[in-house]
Amino acid sequence: MRLSQFTVDARAAATHTPSQNRLLAALPTVELRRIEPDLELVQLPLGRSVYEPGEPVYNVIFPTTGIVSLRYLLADGASTEFSLTGNEGVVGIAAFMGGNSTPSRAVVLSAGHAYRLKKRVLIREVERGGDLQGLLLRYTQALISQISQNAVCNRHHTLEQRLCRWLLLSLDRQSTNKLHMTQELIANMLGVRREGVTEAVGRLQGAGLIQTQRGRITLLDRPGLERQVCECYAVVEKEAERLYSWKPAPRAPQVARWAGGALLTT
Questions:
Q1: What is the spatial distance between Cα 112 and Cα 178, in angstroms, rounded to a whole number?
Q2: What kind and span of H or E run contains 217?
């Protein structure tokens, strides 16, 4: 099942609003109203593919309660996660960055909901050169920072520190203190053996930081978990907050246009 085939959930519309996604919530009212009729609330079933490597990206999604894992898939079938996207961002940046496809895979890591928007509607709004354009570019910068820091973390820090970072980043992107996923799935995300994850989870549980039960991890002591994590978590979160809180200086109106697959402003 691909993103274009995800089920529109009209029954859940009464309990969901676009403002549950931070990017959409940051839009001025006039810009949000222009795209709101085109925003479709869809279900994100656990484990479903949002897009596959090399496939054209025709839609983007703004998660509200679900989390999407971005991964690179190797020729032997192995994969490793390089970033997470939840209610702080958007999935499918190739749609507005000039690339019609991506070499990575996007898979639903935590089931929930998202708002789907067609690429043509997004490009129409980006070409106006308004706040949505700026928000999307700042989010992309934050995503690049997350990917870069993950690469450093995977090279220099222990599995237990990496697990703490991953747990905190995942929990930050949803509204509960519970994650519904198996240790085998976590091992796949981190690109390590399941036995290593089992040992690391056991140490965190023994310290009273988390509790595990049948494919569910519950956070018990967040300050304690933050004391165990490496500096990579704070770097990623501080950069995201810096970019979201940034306010542009007043400037003359710009006109954005696409030329040769690139976004230009004049």
A1: 13
A2: strand 216-219
List, as one string, the DSSP characters of 58-84. Answer: -EEEEESS-EEEEEEE-TTS-EEEEEE
**Distance (Å, whole) CA 172 – CA 13:** 23
Q: Report pTM.
A: 0.82
DSSP 11: G
Whole-angstrom distance, CA of residue 59 vs CA of residue 3:
7
Which conformational region is residue 107 in: left (phi greater than 0), alpha (psi within -120 to 50 degrees), or beta?
A: beta
DSSP-based three-state secondary structure for 7: coil
CA-only gyration radius of the chain, Å: 19
Spatial separation of the C-alpha atoms in residues 125 and 115, rounded to whole Å: 16
21-30: pLDDT as tens digits: 999 999 999 9
Q: Which residues contact 22 (CB under 8 A, 6 or more apart)?
A: 87, 88, 89, 244
